[in-house]
Amino acid sequence: MYTPVALLCRTPARSRLLRTKFMHAAIPSLSISGPAVTTSRRFSRLSRTSSVTSILKAVKDDGCVVIESMFTPSQISRLNKEMDAALANVSAGRPANANTPPLPGGIDPSVFGHNTKRLGNLPSSSAAFREDVADSESLHDICTGIFKETGDYWLSTAQMIEIGPGSKAQPLHADASGWWPFWSMGGKWTPEFAVNFLIATTDTTKANGATGVVRGSHRIKYHDVLDDATLGFWQFPDEQVEQIELKAGDCLLLGGRIVHRGEENKTTDEFRRLLSCTVISSTLTPEEAHPLLLERERARELSERAKKFLGFRELATTIGPDVWQDHQQGGLKRALGF
Description:
Elements (H helix, E strand, L loop, with lengths): L12 H10 L22 E3 L4 H11 L1 E5 L4 H15 L20 H5 L3 E4 L2 H4 L1 H7 L3 H10 L6 E11 L17 H4 L9 E7 L11 E3 L26 E3 L7 E5 L4 E2 L10 E10 L8 H4 L2 H5 L3 H6 L22 H5 L2
Parallel strand pairs: 1-2
Antiparallel strand pairs: 2-8, 3-4, 4-10, 5-8, 5-10, 6-7, 6-9
Helix pairs in contact: 2-7, 3-6
InterPro entries: Phytyl_CoA_dOase-like
Cofactor: Fe cation
Keywords: Iron, Metal-binding
């Protein structure tokens, strides 16, 4: 998911986005602890049957991990068929949020990709998403492990991102930066509170825009660099951005702090599709209001796990009160009637 950097910091939003878009200078060390950024080794590649412990360790060590064949060919085929129809009605060069006003200077295409389409509200438009992604055994096992320090979790936003031929690389960013803990946490306790499952529904290659990741950037101490109003701590030279190629059905799981971007599609005829599925702690507010958007009759058909994931059940936290409650009726199941 790409959250426009103009929404994330304290200096005037529009001028900051313009500055950030056209800056591309390396910032020494960037308060990254541990080894210097290097391209001498590959990021971990595990399988759908790998233990949750090994997946969590890879995310902690590297900030991301590839889970190969997380989704089956039949699931991907079904999802793509639904996306073919939905994306046909989507305009390129715009964010998934239709309410986002155009950026100044007509730079929307350069920020969001002039030939890139983004589709949100997938629970409403895709049965494959509701049944195969929102109720994925692997996804929920991983999320249970990731969020055990803070409590339950729910879906923030799911977006299909199709990078078409000629689209340039998007600005570098970290997905968790849309929520305040990203900017305020110190170094003593830094649980993951937002992660992104990037699910490839087509093969992603270095040529067609495979996601680029900056090794070691999940260790940036953001609370030490807040005075850098230019967001210079997200500027890295191209040689430090490693592209991670995926086969259709693979998932690149990104921790919330690692710096990454969708890369340039240098092909003339390939459309690179990734389903971006951002999951957050139950203590935070989702980007999309799924319980208000998904029709009740469709929500009734969901498994209990998927109902909770999309906000049709109350959620527990490890610190503070449980959330999304109906105190008088003793739970959303009774209040909703399903």
